[in-house]
Specification:
It is a single chain. The chain has one domain: AhpD-like (Up-down Bundle), CATH 1.20.1290.10. About 70% of the residues lie in helices and about 0% in strands. The longest helix has 23 residues. The relative contact order is 0.20.
Amino acid sequence: MSHERRVHLSKSAPEAYKALDAFSKTVGQLASDAGIDDRLKELVQLHASQLNGCAFCVRVHVDRAVAAGLDADVIAQIAAWRESGVFTDRERAALALAEAYTFIHEAGVPDEVYDHVGGILSEQEYVGLSWILVAINAFNRVAIAGRYPVPPRTGVQA
């Protein structure tokens, strides 16, 4: 197999990719039903994609974040969210959860993160965000493994 061209899992097994996409839509609706708005969904998906180094998904979720009402300043501060004053307690809890799920191989979801998040988000919100993070981490792995090219920007501008 050539290192130049990678296998695109989405093209090589479209049924599996369609199932992952359907799963993503299901968990997105689950999160919405739990009270998670599009802004919060996009914050966690963008941060997980940044942490994983998935340029493809970062592009997709920057565009969706802008459509959900995030501006360039907020998007730029995601990487420094702990030191930033632009995020609410809910958003900060969700960003901490995004980091725990993305780096789950290092320490699971640490008790201090679980307890902190649980003190801010309802159980249903925790469940909804957790499933979104499972889905975005799966998408990141598909795109990174296939070295998917960064898609062009949509008409939405930050």
